Structures are given as C-alpha cells and as structure tokens.
Amino acid sequence: MTPTIFLPTTQINQSINASTAQDHLLCFAAPSIMEKKKKEEQTKPLAASFSPSVAEEAATAGPDCPTTRRRGRRLLRCFLCFATAVAVAGLVILILSLTLLRAKNPTLSMTSLSIARIGVVVQPLSVNATLDAGIAIRNPNMASFLFGNSTTYFYYGGERVGVAYAAAGRVRARRSATVAMRVDVLVDRVATRLDLAVDFLAGADLRLASRTEIPGRINVMGLYKRDVEMELNCSMLMVISLARQEIRSTDCTATVR
C-alpha cells in the first residue's frame, strides 16, 4: 500500500498563488511578445533587400541602372574628346603642310660678274680673261637647303672657253647664300677665227654665254624630301679693246627640275 503524503495547507496555498501569478504575467506579456515578433517579420524583407548580394545584382542589372548609364556617358565623353583632339591635330598638320611646310623650289640669279684680269697678245692674237662671278641661291623653305659642288661653263662662238668650280654648301631657312667663283676664259682657243680678230681690233663687244649646274636636296623637317637640279644660263657682252675692258650687260634664266 502506497503511503500518502500530506502537505501543509499553507504550502499548498503558496504554490497555487505562484502559478496564478505566472499565468497573469503571461497573459499581460503575450501581446508585447506578439507585436515584437510581427516587427521582426516585417523588418526581415527590408534587410534582405539591402544585403550586399542584392545590391551587386542591382548594380549589374542592365542598361537601365543609373550606375551603368553614368559609366556609358563617361566613355562617350572620353571618345568624343579623343576624336576631337585627333581631328584638330590633323587639321593643324594639313594647314602647315599647305603653308609653312610646303616645299618650294630654290631660285638662282647672277649677282655679279666682273673682269679681274685680261691679257692680250697682238701677234699672234691671244686673249685670255679672268672673270669673277657670284651666283645667289635663295631658299624660300622653312628648313635648310643643301647644295652640292657646282660647275660653270663659259662659251664663245658655241665653243667652251672656260670652266669654274665651286664647293658645296648650305643655305639657311628663308635666307640667301652667294656662291663665288673665278674662271679663266681662254678666248685664244678660238683666236684663229677672223671675227675675234676683227672684234678685238675694232673694239666691238664679245658675246659670251655661261651655264651653271648646281645639284641640291630639299628636306622640310623630314616630312618632304626631294632632289633637285638647278641650272642657270646666262649671256653677257664683254668689251675688250686696247682702250677698255668691261662687261656691259648680263641676261640670265634659271630653271629647277
């Protein structure tokens, strides 16, 4: 037979009162706990929407994203700036090539021609003259012009009577340089011709001709290079007589090819 345990009346009343108080506390706290759970359930979707993974997906969502549109506008501006710079540079080069950098042919001219010395022997008739000549080369380009060794031939009556040589040189940009030369004109090579004897005794003019050949090279800042051949053809009247010796006039024509 199981023994029966009898609790005091005061202890039973205390346990009943404690349980009743706990039930009343749960009844009052239940609404606040329910509201707290509802708030947590409402905030969870919002937190998920701002999570890093969702933000990255939104940034790479497509062309409608503001970040993508800003990036596209920056790329377009960079491309337009680059294209504008290339166009301006090309236009500047074109203008310079048509104006300042345009290669032009140099020009030649006979600046001086004089008789330095003349020797005359009457019998047998012999006439030798030493002439000093100056040829100017003008360079109209923006770069220096280089020319090679030059040769000048003198003719009388269609026959060569003298040759002069000059060394190579350089003409600075938009400047002129003078090539000086001295030549012995051996007119006695054709002294047996009757017209020379008559011209000398009567004091008439002797018509001489000259031809100067000068090679050169045009090089405009390495952008334009061209070899040229310059030629200067002149005719002159030289007076030789017992009384005077002089050169009256000179007529020259220059060609560049």
TrEMBL record:
Keywords: Membrane, Transmembrane, Transmembrane helix
GO cellular component terms, semicolon-separated: membrane
Localisation: Membrane
Domain Late embryogenesis abundant protein LEA-2 subgroup: 136-234
Bilayer disposition of the protein: Single-pass membrane protein
Cited InterPro entries: LEA_2, NDR1-like
TM spans (from-to): 79-101
Coarse class of the protein's main subcellular location: membrane
GO biological process: defense response to other organism
Pfam families per record: LEA_2
Protein name as it appears in the record: Late embryogenesis abundant protein LEA-2 subgroup domain-containing protein
Provenance organism: Zingiber officinale
